[in-house]
Amino acid sequence: MKRASPTRQRLAALGLLGAPLLTYPLLSLPGGELLGIPASYWYLFGVWAGLIGLAAWVAERQG
Amino acid sequence: MALSGWFIALLSAAYLGLLFAVARFGDARADAGKSIISANVYALSLAVYCTSWTFYGSVGRATSGGLSFLTIYLGPTLMLLFVGVIIKMIRISKAQRITSIADFIASRYGKSHLLAGMVTIIAVIGVVPYIALQLKAMAASLDVLLDREGHAGGWLGLDSTFLIAATLALFSILFGTRHLDATERHEGMVAAVAVESVVKLIAFVAVGLFVTYGLYGGLADLFQRASANPDLGRLLQLDSGRAGTWTAMILLSGLAIIFLPRQFQIIVVENVDESHIKRAVWLFPFYLLLINIFVLPVALGGMLHFSGQTVNPDTFVLTLPLAHGAEALALLAFVGGLSAATGMVIVETIALSTMVCNDLVMPWLLRSAWLQARQQQDLSGLLIGIRRVAIALIVLLGYAYFRAAGEAYALVGIGLISFTAVAQFAPAMFGGMYWKQGTRAGAVAGLAAGFVVWLYTLLLPSFAKSGWISSGFVEHGLFGASWLKAQALFGLSGLDEISHCLWWSMLANIGAYVAVSLNSRPGAVEASQAERFVDVFRYGRHRKETRLWRGKASLDALVSLLERFLGTARVRLQLAVYAQAKGLEDWRTLPVDAEFVHFAEAELAAAIGSASARVMVASVAEEEDLGLDEVLDILDEATQIRAYSRELEAKQRELEAATAELREANERLREVDRMKHDFISTVTHELRTPLTSIRALSEMLHDDPRIELASRTRFLGIIVGEAERLTRLINQILDMAKLESGRAEWTSGAVDIGEVAREAMESLGQLFRDKAVELASEVPSAGPVVQADRDRLMQVLINLLSNAVKFVPEGSGRVYVRVGIDHGMVRVEVADNGPGLTAEECGVIFEKFRQGGNTLTDKPKGTGLGLPISRQIIEYFGGKLWVESRPGAGANFIFTVPLPAPEE
Lengths: 63, 904
Description:
A: two-stranded antiparallel sheet; B: 5 domains
């Protein structure tokens, strides 16, 4: 039987990881501010950028 | 100050001209077979998702909802990660020649005209207001640049928005309906959209940088100032009270990214190469991230700057640069907004026009007497004409809606209202791709239920808020029934209107789809299409098509049918390619089999939709009705074959494993056999050495009676010694054989190891004294006591001691015996100061017939069985025997025997 592509599975796993990270209740965790910028701003853009970076790494690496 | 209207008109015209040139270039390259659609271009073209609703509207949303505008971009990021779903959609669409989302759903559920029409109508009703929103955004941005109130500007009595709309319609017509391409791809348009995506990103980021770093001292400064103001500070915090809305928005936008007609067009229909998805999966979200970084800063900057004034936050992107004299930047922003709006309108109208033409006009036309009367006429021109008119009408409809709605509420919220409308496609789409039992009746029921709920809870209330219809059903419920309040259905309140509509419509949609599907029987065509969709990865493209069609058709009839709709030149070209693939020179000799009929139907489907194509092919071919049962039989057969082959595969794997095991066992047996062989030859060799010397000396004594007495005595001494060695050897071999076969006799009792050690030392005392070797010990006067065979333990100790005395140097030799207790074990050491052993020797001396010292040059000092036997004995008692040694540092033989468990 043909096995599903590991790249697709890894990307889907990232999607499943991203969903709880980018919704409540986890979203209510960051509070206060860092370097004058609200922690929630850091958190949202940071997690988002992290997901994109991981997706790029998974999708673009050879083999 | 106001900019000149003519200058802006020229700039816009020049920009559209540039896009035109890009599109032209893209089409020319596509025609030449050198596509310019790379993975990057594909990923950028996906950003047609960012309309003017993003470009201007995000800032507006941020001024009221803070960071919640981000959900519209997080949803697509997450959705795209499920690459498998998208690749499946692309694969199905390519195999079935699907050109729109309506065609996709219709084709899956038995090529149904009814479903295709429903999807088209929902899409048009849901999306036309969204097009109107784009026109409104362009009009509003013009007003800001020209510094005027109302839409008074124009030319020859036509207002500027109408001119823009007309230009866009023209652009869409030129690039959307150049020819009826087999796959309905528009590479020129995709290239132009990708360029527009870059322009709008640059424009927005430029404004963001200007506001953040030009007007204020950077992000931190802006956030600090905002948090000083209680109204603005609220926007910086995430409001966990809106958790439900947040999740709903992510879900909604995740569905919109694939089900909005323009997104389906770009992601699925315009996809040139499946591998491009891998780039898009991160590059497009990265684009979204970049375009969103400065949304909140621009919103805060605008609110700080215009605080107290009535400036529409949707126009901050333009008004902030203008207020600070940066007119060039404002123009760049205007061009960015223009890009966002035009890209959306062009792709959306092309996608909708395909649907309207294939799924609304064609079915009606195919039944009309007018078409019947023109049996032999070439209709390809007519098809293109219908699409062009459809594009013009859709843009016009958008314009009309914009004029009618004006500043009314109905336009402001329309982005999300559109999203919710297309989300209704989700159950039928996903169900169709993964659930074979989903039926046409189920899909119709689900779509209808979801659409009605959407209409009642979202679209009509938005009309009511605009004052177009009475708002009674929103405030008091239909017919005064309070549980029918449009935005608090069954009393469900506390949600925003979008989440409210999403949950109720999805409940109705999914519920109806599943319930009706489970209670209805699919038709024959449906069952075979379900199989083709759900198992698209499992089958080759044409393998099964041949088995699901039976009938008679003539080549001429099919070819002339194709020519009517596709034009003679293209049909001849496609036929030549098809014939070549079959290895035939001339297409006129093609056999008219099921495969050819399928080919013709697919070609036709690409032009007029699968439902109409099926009707048309059926009109010229005499198809035998297979009936549901027969289709299911054929499919079952295929499933069974698949199951058998899987079983076979499993059997084969088992067989391979068994073979490997057998081979291993055989290998082990051979090893044992070789060892036995080695053992026998070693034993024979060991026995022969003393025998040879006994025999040689005896013969000498026998043959020569004149040997001196002294020599005789010496020879006889050697003979006795060798005979003793032989006896010992044979005894030990027998002992070893008994131990190994488990037939040795053991007696068991309490043994005082200290006493055994002392006795062993005593019995060998003479040996030590003869060689002048010092024997010292550290043995407790009583105990330790273990449960063992006393004689066997004695045997081990004597063996170790006699080994030691053999290897230590004469005169300076020293052997030390220690008995102690260590970790619940009796530990006995016999240490010497002999030549010691290398690490390798430490292991091999426990093998049979391996002796210490160099056996090549020296006379063997033992039998080579003492240590293996000792080890067997110690292991029998549950202990261990090993040696610790280094060359030159003596050897320390250690064995342990477990102490009996203390009795409680």
